[in-house]
Amino acid sequence: MTAYDAIAEWYETSFLAGQREDPLAIRPIVRDLLGPGSGPCLEVGCGTGVHAELIRSLGRTPLGVDVSEGMLRYATDRLPAARGDAGALPFTTGSLPAVVAVMVHTDMPAYPAVLREAARVLAPGGVFVHVGVHPCFCGGFADRSDERAVVIRPGYREAGWTTASWTDQGLRDKVGAAHLPLPELLHAVLDAGLTFERFAEGGEPSPLVLAWRAKKSPDRLSNPVAPG
User: Fold this and answer.
1) What is the DSSP annotation of 202-223?
2) Which three-class secondary structure state does DSSP give residue 131?
3) SS3 string of 35-80?
4) Are 166 and 135 in contact (CB under 8 A)?
5) Contact 82, 64 (CB under 8 A)
6) Which residues of the chain have pLDDT under 70?
7) Main-chain phi, psi angles of 64, to 5 degrees
8) pLDDT, position 222
9) Which of 62, 117, 133, 176 could pair with 55 as two cysteines, CB 3.0-4.6 Å apart?
10) Looking at the domain assignment, is residue 222 inside a domain?
11) Domain count of the chain?
12) Whole-angstrom Cα distance, residue 84 to residue 110?
């Protein structure tokens, strides 16, 4: 997508430099929720591939899919990655033991469809890990000017795409963001045929990150049906 292509160099050379100390505790959250394993682990919305080393350190083989050619130019030295739509993954049904989505669900207006695709390509018993901005405390509706007390203004209950952002130091003011209130986000996971196993939050003093580990039931149909 053009917006992400346009910011790829800034993201790789400037934004990520400010994330080296991992202020949101993303790396330990991924390490804890994903855990050791073997075989391929697909990262949907892999961007420049910065999580590949962590996935590899867990014994897994990182693979990536992203829509942005600009981002993928930086990813090629970090992991095998293909340009593609996370809502139509180029993988066989039931072929992957693990899928992760790290800080990308706000980039995906059709995230429920992405979750259904993740469930489709997962093998029975396969693991899905989501790490994303906290839907309750981040967004254009969140006033974080005082880090000691987040003020939630009208807008949290309104699902959709917005260019409003609580900070001008990240991606959201540059490319916009999709928002789903917490119940809709969690229901989308259940509707995809995944079962929650564990949860985590990251960021201080109030959480900026919400994460979970879910599993595809061994007796679940390969193609979960979207609710009517």
Assistant:
1) E-SSS--EEEEEEEE-TTS-SS
2) strand
3) CCCCCEEEEECCCCCCCHHHHHHCCCEEEEEECCHHHHHHHCCCCC
4) no
5) yes
6) 1, 18, 165-170, 219-228
7) -140, 150
8) 47
9) 62
10) no
11) 1
12) 14
